[in-house]
Amino acid sequence: QVQLAESGGGLVQPGGSLRLSCAASGSIFGLSTMDWCRQAPGKQRELVATITRGGTTTYADSVKGRFTISRDNTKNTVYLQMNSLKPEDTAVYYCHLSLRIGASYDYWGQGTQVTVSS
Asked: How wide is the angle at C-alpha 64 spanned by C-alphas 20 and 85, nearest 5°?
């Protein structure tokens, strides 16, 4: 089965930057849409950014202009570059792989903690 390995989370001051990575096993990555989602304690999981297999990106209004999602299909990896971080960005961030090719496939990473605080 597909495994998603996330990395890059940590503690950063407001205004700082982090880059999250999510490496996927398997051969279906290049056909898949990849998402980054986040969830803070007591809140619903929020879709942060999406990138299609063709490279089209979309962002939540709350992160637009600050975050950039990208992918490297040769490395089976999706990235989330986070700049100008705010305390309200504090959450567990998850990557998600979605494939619709006859059957439907959905895989989630384990999550990585991002904390924005002085």
From this structure: 50
